[in-house]
Amino acid sequence: MAKKNCAKSVRVIHTPEGYCLNEKSFGKVHELCKGTSVYGVEEYTYKGKLHQGEVTFVGGEGLKEVYPTLGGTNHGYTLEGLAQKIFHAENALVRHSDSEDRDFVYVNEKSVLKFVGDSHKSYTIKVRFYDNCYGNDNNRWVVIYAE
Question: Is it true that the peptide bond before 103 is cis, omega within 30 degrees of 0?
Fold first, then answer.
């Protein structure tokens, strides 16, 4: 089976099933390639360059659903690996775990995730949507690992 191009941009008339990375500040949407993580759960990957500015993860009909949902308690992101340096959260509570070497980002309705990395460099960004990978589709938490 041929491997899917993980740097494919999405045309507005073609909205794929699954998830996409939306360069909201730049106006470009990238389809995320579905695979399996080292933890045995669904993982989605983007390989390529990004423009600096606000990013979101979207899916659903017409790509109108944003992940994680910004309302409710205990919603947010975990930033792992290089993601801790190339993403920055605004209007969110960010806590670093020294023992796990990752950031926990708790979001609210005003929170924004921004790509602040090098826009001339290609990155591999791997995304897991918890608790969705375990059958609890609540869209409350997104884990982002980058290298």
Answer: no
